[in-house]
Amino acid sequence: MEKHKQENRQGLKLLSTSKEWKLLYYQHGRPGLEERRKFKGLCNQCDLQSLCGLPKPEIGVWRCEHFRAKIFKKSSLHKNVLKLLEKAQNVNNFDRDICKIMAETMNELVVHFPVTMNDGHVKMLTGYRVQHNNALGPFKGGLRFHPMVDIDEIRALATMMTWKTAIVNIPFGGAKGGIQIDPADFSPKELERIARRFTFALGNNIGPEYDIPAPDVNTNPQIMAWIQDTYMSTIAPDERNRCIHVVTGKPIESGGSVGREKATGQGIVFCIEKWAQDHGFNLKGATYMVQGYGNVGSWTARLMKKNGSKLIAVEDVTGAVRNKEGIDPDDLAQYVKEHGGVVDYPKAQAIDHEVFFNTKADIFIPAALENSISGDTAELLNVKLVAEGANGPTDEEGDKVLQRKNIEVIPDILCNSGGVIVSYFEWLQNKRSEFWELDEVDSKLKKIIVSAYERVRDAAEKYKVDWRTAAQIVALYRLEMVYKERGIFP
Ligand code: NAD
Question: What is the distance in A from the centroid of ligand 1 to the CA of 316?
Fold first, then answer.
């Protein structure tokens, strides 16, 4: 213990092999792949400090998986999803038997599969695909690569996909999947083998007319292309080209749609614009802060720029930065591309997690992981509107605090539905061998998401409930109708 303290005073890398954990302390930056491989359970900001005696690190150092878990995993996401279902059921007196169906997932697949690493050793990995409901159409939902992925999370996210597709009125059901890995631990070649082997393990449990994956946290168009290629390689040659829509969010050349990459962010911005219009709120000069600067966060920030709004604070897994004069979203996106995160961005000041949440702004866009707005962080928030880009970013306590503080919320299942809407367009284009122009994609997206927004707003007024409950009511209403019309087989 003494040794660690000494070395730290000298500003050296610290290495500990304490009984429970191996700890590696970096004063700056994210450890490289080889270093991370050697030391699992990296820690520099979490409670393990008391275990190893390390002093509180400087702001802006890389955050460990353990710290992320501490921020985001305080409550079960699935439990929250079920509580909301129950609340909506009671408000509108939905059919209890149908709600019983909605409370369960239809299929849950857990696969364990081997992948050969670059050095020749074999690693066993665990992947999940949960199919919640397909009453409205094929199962649809993203695939996530993250160390915190587990069945509870995937179950919840699959259920939320059913609500989302129902709210926006597109012919899909709900599903979600993922692999419990940190992609930063693997080389691109290893990631390709992981994606392909996972697809092979899923086999016919996915398919263009049955269950269609898409990108989510830490997955991207390249990974979708590997999944597409693997799936197509395992079916009869004369069927292959009828299957290009087995995934959406593909690269354009492989059958992707223009506008899909930015679609979730674009949908969020359409919702914020509609909210501003309804409230007579001028977005020009309005300030906003974003948590998560990946696909959803960075695109939302970049598209908000067109409204003349000012990005003033950003947090991602590497740290948080703030500049009250404004941060250029495109410049920051370029920086994140080159450096892997917002940490040490030279045109803003480093701030810590609490200061980030306490920043005064008009709009907060959580676009990272679930449960980031807890009771504690919601108390710190000083904004008018939370536009939920992430899935499940607000836990039950957080929600109560937001309501008490009269902070308005555009809930996730409405606000971030732009991604699945444009996935639907991509799927349709593939089926029809068509290629739509960006204007067509954007205008159709706007029409669908704005009318969903209006349905949720009207339900909130009619039932005198918060928007989250209203969104749930809109989804349940559509699903209940379908079940009542068709009945329960046999
Ligand atoms: P991404 O992998 O591109 O980006 C995730 C971002 O979250 C990164 O910037 C990462 O640094 C940040 N992050 C992770 N842990 C964090 C932590 N502890 N503190 C702060 N930031 C942290 O993922 P994405 O596709 O942008 O997805 C983000 C969220 O949006 C997820 O909840 C996802 O389910 C949801 N979503 C995504 C889509 C889509 O089309 N990609 C659609 C709908 C909803």
Answer: 9
CA distance 282 to 234: 53
More confident residue, 424 or 32: 424
DSSP state of 310: E
Ligand 1 close to Cβ of residue 317 (< 6 A): yes
Q: Whose CA is nearest to atom 41 of ligand 1?
A: 216
- Tell me how far the alpha carbon of residue 107 lies from the centroid of ligand 1, in angstroms: 25
Nearest-atom index, ligand 1, CA of 412: 44
d(CA 59, CA 317): 12
Instruction: Give the model's confidence band at 184: pLDDT under 50 very low, under 70 low, under 90 confident, else very high.
Output: confident
Q: Mean pLDDT for the chain? A: 87
Query: Looking at residues 73-91, what average pLDDT do you find?
Result: 88
Distance 288 CA to ligand 1 centre (A): 17
Q: Whose CA is nearest to atom 6 of ligand 1?
A: 292
Task: For residue 176, indicate whether it is catalytic.
Answer: yes
What pTM does this model have? Answer: 0.89
If we measure between CA atoms, which residue out of 137, 159, 162, 169 comes closest to residue 445? 169
The H-assigned helical ranges of 33-95 are 33-38, 48-52, 65-72, 77-92
204-225: average pLDDT: 97
pLDDT in tens, 237-272: 999 989 999 999 999 999 999 999 999 999 999 999
Query: Does residue 263 sit in helix, strand or coil?
Result: helix
469: Cβ below 6 Å to ligand 1? no
3-state secondary structure 227-244: HHHHHHHCCCHHHHHHCH
Ligand 1 contacts CB of residue 275 (under 6 A): no
